8-amino-7-ketopelargonate synthase
Amino acid sequence: MSTTLSQRPQLKHLTAILDNLKQRGTHFKLRILEDEQGPVCTYDGKKVINLASNNYLGLCNHPLLREAALEATKTYGVGSGAVRTIAGTMKIHMDLEEKIARFKNVEACVVFQSGFTANAGTVSSILGKEDFIISDELNHASIIDGARLSRAKIKVFRHKDVAHAEEQLKEVANEPGRKLIITDGVFSMDGDIGPVDKLCDLADKYGAIMMVDDAHASGVLGRNGRGSIDHFGCHGRVDIQVGTLSKAIGALGGYVCGSRDLIDYLYHRARPFLFSTSHPPSVAATCIAAFDLLENEPERIDRLWSNTRYFKEQLGRIGFDIGGVTTPASETPITPIIIGDGKKTMDFSKALFDAGVMATGIAFPTVPEGKARIRTIMTSEHTKDQLDQALDTLEKTAKKLGILS
């Protein structure tokens, strides 16, 4: 009888870690989606109201995006066949980058295989060990990994604390090397908006590079969803804008926007770009169609914000802790329900699923110990009836588990 890898002692330490997660009640299994990503869908054979998706504008299954994907597949095939720098740059890839650059009001854009690689590949390629990174403590993991890969010296400022960020800059102002200030536009766990305008002031004052990860802001904030830079009126003041094609855009990938020289440099030095096969043409075509929709159907964003305001108001009325005292207050369609204890949070998430609501539990190490939460996300496609049903389920389940009295 052959020995499987799971039985070999070389990876026994992984089993011990998993056992510990199970004992603490924070171990999870992947839920399997059996139909399309929508406000109501089927996971693990159960129909649920979906409060966990990043499909903010319902574009994952929009008929125009489907049509664009099918037409591109018929015309160009299912794959590009190579990395961009060898034989894998198709005209449709260039069309997408030009479309995004115009939308974001910048000179140029480069598309990556994911938002994670866009962040990590950019930070790690533009800085070196003599440089400094001034980073918000709640920045996304891809920023943290990119900072580590760059070998630059990392200085972390308290969340959204601009004065503390300036203290960090003052400490290194006379040191040789470049300085990079980096923040999320919208923070993915708390749903609050980064102080982009005030950090731009610091970048101007100290001659620092300014970088914003707008993954959860693109398609949500600003005119027609142009993001946090547009929201704050900071065009021309942010050197590096990172976005995603996997959330509001409804498909897959990430991108970096900036000057032509920045993008040309990333073509030559960003390792994820250099060593990953380019997007299938169907994905590029889908994203082009999505940006057309952002321009032509602003009512989707209006619906998203209407649902967001209603849902937050009702969660507060019910008595849930949705941030604002010891946790940042949500300002966007991401609204955390703060529970605190990791096991209690995961039990709550499971009970909600059993009752017909998909709302994901988030615990350490994704968030700090004692800050576990149910993260809820609104979309433009939720109906008021669906929201009311979800709210009723949230309230009844929380009372049943003793989370609410």
Remarks:
- The chain has two domains: 25-54+298-400, 61-296.
